[in-house]
Write a structure and sequence with these properties.
Elements: H1 5-10, H2 31-40, H3 43-47, H4 50-64, E1 68-70, H5 77-81, E2 86-89, E3 93-96, H6 102-106, H7 114-131, E4 137-143, H8 145-154, H9 162-170, H10 172-196, E5 200-205, H11 214-234, E6 240-244, H12 254-258, E7 262-264, H13 271-277, E8 283-288, H14 292-295, H15 297-310, E9 316-320, H16 330-340
Parallel strand pairs: 1-4, 4-5, 5-6, 6-7, 7-8, 8-9
Antiparallel strand pairs: 2-3
Helix pairs in contact: 2-4, 4-7, 7-10, 8-9, 8-10, 9-10, 10-11, 15-16
The structure holds coproporphyrinogen III.
């Protein structure tokens, strides 16, 4: 059997047509997702129901034939498994109990206990490994420590990650201890996903862009390097995708510094820049602006061709620069795929 296209790109091969998947490909823009979420009751119940979570993971594969499926779960399940309270306010987003000092970090559950809460997620991975078409790659994921910490400290999403930056400067010991707990728990969590059947893992550092200078090295690069080397020691040859979103110049050399096999690029940089400065080190993923999935038309076609062309000279996985939004039109996703595949 020829190797799956995503795995070939991750191994550094330049393919005539880039393989494609999409961040948040299972989500609210799909009517079949909304139906299954209603059946589950709410978003968290859906995440912890292996049959239904596997079903929504498969929906975009059936509809579009993407080259990869990403496990349906959330980066905030890990804090919950560590003992944080987690709930979702409709129309507003996640809410968590907050951590503001060393006592809060010490009150977290032992990292080895996360599997009690996360066992249904591993069950979803097992179901998917058995059910996916043979050409489709299964991607597991977790949040990177900095991004997860921003939610655990603030108790919600924040525009500038102010509370996390404040703790970092006022109580460095507590902040660093929290980063270390999340780092070690993430290794256990991702390793269990791989043991259950995930073929690739992705680390989402959605708020990496707010770390500047030495902070970027200490809290985006170093934790990623630690997670990736530990995972590769346990699972030799495991491909890893890292997404230090809005990392800007931090993207340069990120693969070498962390051991990642692929760097996912957001759409705040041009594909030409990313080809010249990041793809020279290996595979990149990205970076069509998600708004094209709302607006569509000839602009979508031209922007899609632009991304494909800019990355044609090296290994590339086509994707959006960030997740698809709930107001996207499913027909525009098909138009993007047809354009990438040259139909
Ligand atoms: O990509 C996929 O299809 C796989 C599943 C997945 C989800 N979240 C499902 C989800 C993945 C990989 C994530 C990652 C995630 N979750 C990130 C990192 C990536 C990024 O978007 O930057 C972050 C920061 C979160 C935390 C989170 N989860 C937020 C801030 C929100 C609310 C905002 C929003 O988009 O609604 C969620 C909810 C969430 N996670 C939804 C989905 C499908 C929507 C929930 C719903 O159905 O109501």
């Amino acid at each position: 059997m020829t190797k799956k296209t995503i795995l070939r790109a991750l191994a550094g091969e330049t393919l005539p047509t880039p393989p494609i998947w999409m961040m948040r490909q299972a989500g609210r823009y799909l009517p079949e997702y909304r139906t299954t979420r209603a059946e589950a009751g709410d978003f968290l119940k859906l995440c912890y129901n292996p049959e239904l979570a596997a079903e929504v993971t498969l929906q975009p594969i059936r509809r579009y034939g993407f080259d990869a499926a990403i496990l349906f779960a959330d980066i905030l399940l890990l804090p919950q498994a560590l003992g944080a309270d987690l709930w979702f306010e409709t129309g507003e987003g996640p809410r968590l109990s907050t951590i503001g000092d060393m006592a809060g970090v010490r009150a977290l559950r032992p990292i080895a206990d996360i599997h009690e809460t996360l066992a249904p997620i591993y069950e979803t991975v097992k179901l998917l490994a058995a059910e996916l078409p043979r050409e489709t790659t299964l991607i597991g994921f977790a949040g990177a420590p900095w991004t997860v910490a921003t939610y655990m400290i603030a108790g919600r999403g924040t525009k500038d990650q102010g509370p996390a930056h404040a703790l970092k400067s006022s109580d460095r010991a507590a902040f660093s201890a929290l980063i270390d707990v999340i780092t070690e728990a993430t290794i256990l969590y991702l390793s269990a996903q791989v043991s259950a059947g995930a073929e690739v893992v992705k680390l989402f550092d959605s708020w990496a862009g707010s770390l500047k200078g030495q902070d970027f090295t200490d809290f985006a690069v170093k934790p990623a390097a630690r997670i990736i080397s530990a995972l590769k020691a346990m699972h030799p040859g495991l491909p890893v995708i890292a997404f230090p979103r809005e990392g800007g110049d931090g993207y340069v050399g990120f693969a070498r510094a962390t051991g990642a096999d692929c760097v996912a690029i957001d759409n705040s940089v041009t594909p030409e820049w990313a080809a010249a400065h990041v793809q020279i080190d290996g595979c990149v993923q990205g970076n069509l602006a998600p708004h094209h999935m709302v607006s569509g038309g000839q602009e979508l076609v031209e922007a899609t061709r632009h991304v494909v062309k800019a990355f044609r000279g090296g290994p590339h996985i086509f994707n959006l620069g960030h997740g698809i939004t709930p107001d996207a039109n499913p027909d525009n996703v098909q138009l993007m795929i047809d354009t990438v595949r040259g139909a």
